[in-house]
Amino acid sequence: MTKVRKAVIPAAGLGTRFLPATKAQPKEMLPLLDKPAIQYVVEEAVGAGLTDIIIITGRGKHAIVDHFDRSFELEHFLEAKGKFDELKQVREISDMASIHYIRQRDPLGLGHAVAAAEGHVRDEPFAVLLGDDLIVESTHLLQEMLAVHGKYGRSVLGAMEVSRDDISLYGAIEPELVENEHLARVRSIVEKPAPEDAPSNLAAIGRYVLTPEIFDCLRRTQPGVGGELQLTDAINLLAQEQAVYAYVFEGGRFDVGNKIDYLKATIELAIDRDDIGKEFRSWLGDFVERKKLI
Ligand code: G1P
């Protein structure tokens, strides 16, 4: 069985939920503390052993390409000033993995973005990581999903129980339990159903391990919700033709495309940091008390 080596990271979206911050900079470059959101995603892929990263970009996304490139002026400056820790950090970003860029000319949907990677992925299984979903490191979700893929050789979706009201924001899975409560077989999946039509509360979150047959399914998929080519619809087709699994996990995920979750993620990251965590935790405790928040 082919080992999964490749990760596709769609980053062509317009980021309208974060205007005006995203007017002149890609939403993927918004920082969570001192790192742009997309760096967490690339680090997650690399941490799970994926070495070949394909970022799907669009117009106005140069900052992403620059971020993962060498920065000779900055490196020279840091070296001359003796700022070696910073220099190491900056170099690590460009040495992390082999990163390729594919430009999606028109934003025709997530399925369309993934289809654009076919020429690079070819006939290998691959992972898809959506930048709006931040998975906290301790969760090891992608590793677990890759282990399931290693066992069954089939596609695996990252999945999570959400409230009935929220299911209409996601791909909703009709599951059939296998083995244990963490693993389900996907009977079908439907993109953003009305709560009353959803087959369950089990939502696909933005992590997928896909077999290359998905590309053929994408070719046979018509535009769906919002007039966009939906990855979910292609996965639904795939699930009718070969087994697709859902790996169900709990917690440790933030939708950083949403303002409240963006704030929560920032706070969660800050309290765990070695350099600022202690001071920030103490301030946060005082703040909650001062404002009588609890
Ligand atoms: C996308 C997918 C959806 C999935 C979600 C996870 O939707 O289309 O199936 O559940 O990501 O975050 P989006 O959030 O881009 O609208």
Q: How confident overall, as mean pLDDT?
A: 93
Kindly state the percentage of residues in helix: 25-40%
Unreliable sequence segments: none
Identify the strand order in the major beta sheet.
8-11-9-10-12
What's the total number of strands?
13
Bound molecules: 1-O-phosphono-alpha-D-glucopyranose
Number of helices: 11
- Estimated share of beta-strand residues: 15-25%
Overall geometry:
globular
Based on secondary structure, the structural category is: alpha/beta
Rg on CA atoms, Å: 20 Å
Distance between the termini: 53 Å
The biggest beta sheet is recorded as: 5 strands, mixed, barrel
Element-level helix/strand string: EEEHEHHHEHHEEHEEEEHHEEHH
Can you describe this structure?
The structure is a single chain. By secondary structure, this protein is of the alpha/beta class. It is 36% helix and 24% strand. It has eleven helices and 13 strands. It has a five-stranded mixed beta barrel with strand order 8-11-9-10-12. It starts with 5 loop residues before the first strand and ends with a helix. 1-O-phosphono-alpha-D-glucopyranose is lined by residues 110, 130, 132-133, 170-171, 191, 203-206, 230-232.
What brief labels describe this structure?
294 residues, five-stranded mixed beta barrel, two-stranded antiparallel ribbon, globular, binds 1-O-phosphono-alpha-D-glucopyranose
